[in-house]
Structure formats: C-alpha cells, structure tokens
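Help needed: design a sequence for this.
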C-alpha cells in the first residue's frame, strides 16, 4: 500500500509541558493558525478525536498534569498508538523553562503550583519535572521559553507551524554558550570551541559573530573550511530524509565558550548557506538575545 501524501494526513499536535512555561499561549497560537484546539482532554479520549476520514484536518490538543487520567505511562502509550497510524502526522510539543524562571513567573502572578497548592512553587516544579521527564524525551519539539516573552513564543510557534501546506522543514539554527548548556530540544549540536577565539583579539572582543570582522577571523582559521563543508554535507544529506519522514521542523545548535563570537558566526554562515539551498531558516542567538533584555 502506498503511503498517504503529507498534505492528506490528519495533522495532530499534542502540546504539554511544565506549568507556567507557556503551554496555554502555545495552544492559543495554534488556534490562530487554523488548528481546532481542545485543552485538557482526558487521555482516554484523545484517540477518538482523530480519524482517518478527516484528510487535511488540523487538530491541537493540550495536556497537562491536571488532565483526567494523566500518567506518564498513559501518555507514552497514547503517543505510541498514535504514531502507528500512517494517515496521521503527529507532533508532540513540550514547553519548558528553567526553574528560576518558573519560580519567578509563579511569584509574579501569585498563582499556586497545581502539584503543590500548599507548598512552595519549587516543590511543585520538582514533582512535575519528575513526572514529565520521559514525556519530554518523547517530544518532537521542545520549546524552552526561559528567554522568551509571550510575543517571542508566539513568533516561534508561528515559524514552526505556519507552513501554508509546504512539506519542507522549518529549520531553526541556535547559537549558545556552553556555560549555560545547550538549549533543550536541539536535534543536532556542533561544538565550535576548537576554532580560534576572537575574544582574545582586543579589537574584536566587544563585537559578536554577526560582524564582518569576527566572521572573517573565524573563517580564516585553517580548520574552518573543512568543518563548514562537513556540517553542510551532513545537513544537506539529512534534511531531505527528515522531510520524507514527515518531520516539519529541525533545529541545529552551535556552541562556544561565551556564545558571542564563534557559535554566532557559524550559525549565521550555515543559516545563509542553507537558505541558499532553498530551506526555510530562522536564527536564534540565545546569549545575544538574553543580553539585549538585561
């Protein structure tokens, strides 16, 4: 039997994640993008909402730890069952944020954590992370909103899911500092710390990898050309395969010590090269964005 075309499949997005991370905002954004949305649907009813006789339908379902019959096993079993359907295109979006950010958000809104109504928000966050760890591992998209405003989150969801029927991947390229760890949910990560560091050049120290001077310095490293070629060869090989599998987005990360020079330069250079190959690419520089908000 031939495989159903991507545009004829039912598109189902399951949205879950940590309380206070932005799950509701994500669901509302999907609704604005034309998805029929259902929040807090009991796990046992999810498989009844979608059917093979709904070609091209777009449905988003929100689940959280308050959902009736929510357990880690129940969710994982449900995802396994849904993934087996050839007529269904399934995405699982997990929305997260750092503990410090979540505590601050609960403090600012004066809300109690649903898993610790009589205790501190941190107690509830810890319990919820333990409950959701395996579900996060099963997600196809992890959105870390620690450094995002609600507007930033809506823009990111729009980039990922507002595809207008196209089957190509939406590619997001991240730069980051290893001091703060790699962003959650990156599909493919490259360590740029072996390249010569512009930080030690006084005239380049205050600049970042978007500047011509820093990019020229990084590209003049004798190892750059081969590294860049290998990154591109791997990307050009893998991306069409992910399209064939029905994946709608892919994230690539470049890390360096401070997230200011080498990783930014590589992210910009690879993004431009992939765009020239016809891919839809967006770039996020985590440390530069964070600094701009301080």
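Sure. Designed sequence:
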């Amino acid at each position: 039997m031939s495989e159903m075309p991507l545009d004829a499949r039912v598109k189902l997005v399951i949205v879950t994640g940590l309380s206070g991370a932005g799950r509701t905002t994500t669901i509302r954004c999907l609704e604005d993008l034309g998805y029929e949305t259902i929040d807090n649907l009991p796990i046992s009813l999810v498989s009844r909402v979608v059917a093979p006789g709904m070609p091209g339908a777009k449905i988003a379902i929100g689940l959280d730890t308050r959902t009736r019959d929510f357990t880690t096993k129940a969710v994982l079993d449900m995802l396994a069952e849904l993934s087996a359907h050839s007529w269904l295109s399934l995405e699982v979006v997990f929305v997260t944020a750092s503990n410090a950010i979540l505590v601050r958000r609960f403090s600012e809104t004066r809300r109690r954590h649903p898993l610790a109504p009589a205790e501190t928000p941190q107690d509830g966050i810890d319990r919820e992370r333990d409950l959701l760890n395996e579900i996060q591992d099963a997600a196809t998209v992890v959105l870390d909103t620690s450094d995002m405003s609600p507007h930033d989150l809506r823009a990111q969801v729009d980039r990922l899911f507002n595809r207008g029927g196209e089957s190509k991947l939406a590619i997001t390229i991240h730069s980051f500092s290893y001091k703060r760890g790699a962003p959650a949910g990156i599909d493919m990560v490259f360590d740029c710390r072996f390249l010569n560091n512009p930080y030690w050049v006084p005239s380049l120290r205050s600049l970042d990898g978007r500047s011509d001077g820093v990019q020229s310095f990084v590209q003049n490293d004798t190892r750059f050309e081969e590294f860049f070629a290998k990154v591109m060869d791997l990307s050009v090989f893998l991306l069409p395969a992910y399209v064939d599998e029905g994946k709608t987005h892919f994230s690539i990360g470049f890390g360096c010590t401070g997230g200011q020079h080498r990783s930014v330069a590589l992210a910009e250079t690879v993004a431009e090269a992939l765009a020239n190959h016809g891919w839809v690419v967006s770039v996020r520089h985590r440390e530069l964005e964070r600094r701009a908000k301080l």
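The two ends are 56 Å apart (CA to CA).
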